[in-house]
Design brief:
By secondary structure, the protein is an alpha+beta fold. It is built from five helices and five strands, in the order αββαααβββα.
Length: about 150
């Protein structure tokens, strides 16, 4: 077939020339190891059907902007939406489904935790991401209003 890689074509040529043995191994699955060394098994069919996340190309830019221009909001997001007050928080991951903040919990010596925020709808670009951030901020601002 036309979709063979060049390496596979070379191997098939060796087989045709009867030089050694050619073995084909089909892996049954793969696994993902995250930043905290947590292992998650991924079915091979899911892995093969996966597509690049639409925020992949702007991921580092979003992380930079969140940690430079919105840093003061991160502990407020966690306190208001997750119920955990923080000494400080850092934005460290984003994808079309949501984002994660790594935060140092208040009243602890050095207890850090990950807080995942899921979007209500998939986000496909940087502008949509920041619209979601502004909605989170608005929710906090309206809750801060004293009647």
């Amino acid at each position: 077939p036309e979709n063979y890689t060049e390496e596979l074509r070379k191997l098939l040529k060796l087989k045709d020339e009867d030089v050694g043995e050619l073995y084909w191994m089909e892996p049954g699955g793969v696994f993902h190891v995250d930043l905290f060394e947590k292992r998650t098994d991924v079915k091979l069919r899911d892995f093969r059907s996966a597509k690049e996340d639409p925020l992949c190309k702007v991921r580092h830019e979003i992380i930079h902007i969140m940690n430079s221009e919105h840093l003061d909001w991160l502990p407020r997001f966690v306190a208001n939406y997750k119920g955990h007050p923080l000494n400080e928080g850092f934005f460290y991951d984003v994808d079309r489904m949501g984002f994660s903040i790594f935060g140092w919990q208040k009243d602890t010596e050095n207890l850090w935790a990950e807080y995942r925020f899921e979007f209500t709808e998939k986000v496909d670009d940087k502008e949509s991401f920041f619209q979601n951030i502004e909605m989170l901020k608005s929710g906090i601002k309206s809750a801060d209003v004293k009647y």
